[in-house]
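ugh ok so i messed up the first submission bc i forgot one of the chains. this is the corrected input, ALL of the components this time, i swear. 583 residues overall. if the numbers dont match what u have on ur side tell me asap before i send this to the collaborators (the ones from the other lab, u know who)
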Amino acid sequence: MPQLVDIEKAGVPLVVIIYEDQDECFNQAARLNGVPNIRRLHVSRTRDGVEEADRLIKPMFDALTHPLTEKEKESGRWEVPDERIIFEGALQEAQEFYQQAEIIPTAQNAPIAKYTDGLPIIVPTEELVEKMLKGTSHKPDELITFQTDHMFGNRIQNRQAEADRRSNRSVLMGNTGIKGDPVGFLPMRRKATVEKVATIGVMAGCKPEYLPVLLALAESGGGCGDGRGRSGFCVCGPIAKEIGMNFDINIFGPGNHANRSIGRAGELMWRNFGGNIPAVTNCGVWGNGLTNCIPENVEALPPGWKSLAEEYDFKRDESVLISVSAGGRGTEFSPGGYRALQKSGHGGIARRLGVKGIPGPHNWLEYIIPGLWAGREGGITIYMLPHMAQHLYEYGFKTKDDVYEWLYKQSFITVAEYRTHSWADVRTGGWMGREKISGQPWKELPDDYMVPAMDDPYENCIIVTGGGEESALYSGGRAPNTQPAYSIDAWR
Amino acid sequence: MSEKYKCLNPVGIQDPVDLYPLAPRLDGLEGKNIYLSLGGGGEQEILIPLRKKLLAEYPDINWKIQPSSAGGALSDEELKTTDAVIRGVVW
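and heres the new structure output, hopefully the right one now
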């Protein structure tokens, strides 16, 4: 959006083509960027494209030539007051105040909560917020700023990103900035103070000792992501045990106060800091699925395997919050079948891996590889139990990087197969660009030429945690050139 | 009589935004330099026929096709020589 607004500000008329169901989100984003009345035309998601193109031309030309209306000529200033005390009264009345919802016409008249995730909250009285603030040494009125640099391209040199930042263009939506920059919570690019984070913490039911985690979570952009929500956060380091997080069975399920309330705080930040209103400011699709914030079981890592914090250049004894991909699917093998594979080399997994009758350790990841890149590209984030990680170590993966590299090599597919992938049309510039490794034009590569389905082994991410029956979860990978790790200790 | 409590505002701080009018419209399109900025991940079913039709049926306009990788951004130099921009499909 900033790029589009720059065009109008430069005195060049613009018309945009957009889907009708996203119009309100466009409208909000246009105002947020300073040109609220950008002319747009609606197209259909389902009607024939050629007919739509025919229909568009006249109104498109009209939008560039018809004189401006009085409203379109208006200038001014959009201001939203920020009052510290939002309600004064009895607790029951306060509960009703915070639970109010508003009807959203563009969401088929669904009522959407104004301050909460839809559920009742703990009322953030001045007294409770003051108590929460004892969890940090930071001042209540301190703005949430980046404690270190978090620029796109930090981990892989990207000069264009820096040039774009200097020209004030947004290169990566959400959580990018340099040390000292205020964090802008998306979609509405709002800011927050330490006291507002404490307020959210009270509402979510957090304890004061969680506050450094919440502040790091806020520094990461809260549960907002790029405005459409973020799916997961992982706590690494000593604080996870200090605050009683669950490392074992059911880490994504209900029951543990820290796991659940910190995750909930992320969602409340999305609503209140980011200004998320479905079909008004957020044109995502399914929501984010953030429920619990989970811990990495650092002590259970195999020898030589880095913790997530160490992967991001922190020390193992530092406490760090990392935004991760969550959700996804579980391994389809039976836990008993897994044990049979590792103990004696029997069962279906052993037959697939060609190790029938040979006791483990075996590389169980081989079982999930077939079909993993049948319709998608990119790495994977794998949540694995400590003893399943140990089996991989004993098999021969002496570091996490060894696993990442192995997964990268497994991802190679033929160009013929890659042509059947949907996103490949975009990633290859409509097949007009060049393949990165060979440097050859895509159109000149033979069908049997092998290309990786991910750009970098580091798109993969292993999180060792959980407990119980032998299964693992896997979901989308990570962006290898970002720095999604945020010091919790900096917020103590 | 219930005790009264002061309750804090969880809503983030919205910085004020200066609002600008739209750019003046053109008096006609003939001979003008118009950028057609096509979103790469957008609606190719519409944009490809639209591009073909505009180039074939409106030759009096100086069409400039912006590659999808540009993301809709025009450089300062490009803006100096551009009369109008059509951008689609956004998002």
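quick check: The first strand of chain A starts at residue 14 and ends at 19. that seems consistent at least. Residues 154-173 of chain A have pLDDT under 50 and may be disordered.
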